[in-house]
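TMV resistance protein N
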Amino acid sequence: MENCNLSSLPNEVGNLISLETLNLGKNKLRTLPDSICNLTRLVKLNLSKCDVSHLPGEIGRLISLERLDLPQNNLLTLPDSFCNLVSLRHLNLGDYNLSHLPDRIGKLSSLLSLSLERNNVCSLPNSFSDLASLQFVHLSYCKRLQSLPKLPEWSESTYIYLPGDEVPNRFQYQYTGSKLSLVVPPLETRRILGCSLCVVFRTHEDCVRQKSTALFLHNKHTKSSLGVPITPQDQDQMILFYFPSKETALSGRIHAGDEFKFEIKLAPWSAATVATVKKCGINLIYEDNTEMHIKKKRNITDTRDSDISSPRN
């Protein structure tokens, strides 16, 4: 039913109780009938580019919904019941005037990807830190974004797109260019869970959208990679990454004073780079969930760390 010039749906759509996929993209649906909330077996719902101004108040009854695409609509807020979509894994709310997310967004415990690019959000709810399954968050072109809450305790590779051209203050020791060198600080009895990275980059002029681009983090012993979609933009972009230790050179037996040298590259698999890394920052994450900053070989600063990353345009 995509691109069928539909302006409304009949109430009888709620009788299709066995329906699992409903594609209504590129229509003129400003509202949806309340009966659509009867589709409790619905797994995928596409409402892209439909001019929808509000969702039914009982949308949370779609307990089987795993994918919801709502980009390029006219939604300003989401109903309270939205956070009852506990099976939701992929949520696309990009490219409209959404000013805030529900305070209970952290209840979406199955969520893997969240797209919020080109919205008017200034901050994310504190419950965002409960989204421990997240692997991808897209906040590009959210020009009003001022801060992030405490990030979830992730166990898998994760990345967050943000507006900005400076490494946030939480990455106290920062580097110019794509190469970094670090010395492991005293470990005491703690184990390293992984590392968090910040990468500021700019795409090349001849770059086209790359869906299979990877960020490579490598040294002479190992090479880690994380697939990321790269969109050409005429401005600097920033991505925050989390790498578990099992996916980096830090997975082996390491000691205080050990030195590691890394280089960061953004490129399609086995191809030339599509972007220039301009700046980067790194933290170690220990099993007590505290981020330990890495000593650079030189030019160590005394800048105080912040618990909140503050992207700057």
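thats it. The two ends are 40 Å apart (CA to CA). The longest strand covers residues 192-203. bye
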